[in-house]
Structures are given as structure tokens and as C-alpha cells.
Design a protein that fits this description.
Blueprint lengths: L2 H26 L1 E6 L2 E6 L1 H27 L2
Antiparallel strand pairs: 1-2
Helix pairs in contact: 1-2
């Protein structure tokens, strides 16, 4: 295997981890409570922003990993 392919595969794996972490941060940052027919939504804005940053980095790393793997062929 070529060194570029290994780096590309590592970037893809890291991007999948970052994407999973980002989705978890976004989903954990908002909570809904129903109390006596009253729906209360509480959200952590900074947690959502951090989750979106992780997702953005995941997309960039995934694209870079795919590019490097394809370029090595």
C-alpha cells in the first residue's frame, strides 16, 4: 500500500468519528420536557455550534480523504 492511501484512509476514519461526535453533540444539546400540556424546549446553543463545527470538519476531512485515495490510483 502506498503512504498516500494510508493517510487517505486515516482521514476518512477520523472524519467518520468526528461526524458521529458532532451528531451526538447536536442531539444532546436540546431537551424537550412536557409538563401539564405545556411543552418546554431547552437547548444549549454553544453545544449545537460545536456539533456543527465537528460536522463541518468531518465533511472536509472526508472529502480530503477521498481525494487522496483516488489520486493515489
Amino acid at each position: 500500500m502506498n503512504t498516500n492511501k494510508i493517510i487517505g484512509i486515516v482521514l476518512i476514519i477520523v472524519s467518520l468519528f468526528l461526524g458521529y461526535t458532532g451528531i451526538n453533540k447536536i442531539s444532546e444539546s436540546s431537551v424537550s420536557v412536557k409538563l401539564l400540556d405545556l411543552n418546554i424546549d431547552v437547548s444549549d446553543k454553544s453545544g449545537k455550534e460545536e456539533g456543527y463545527i465537528y460536522l463541518g470538519l468531518a465533511v472536509i476531512l472526508f472529502g480530503g480523504g477521498i481525494y487522496i485515495v483516488k489520486k493515489g490510483k
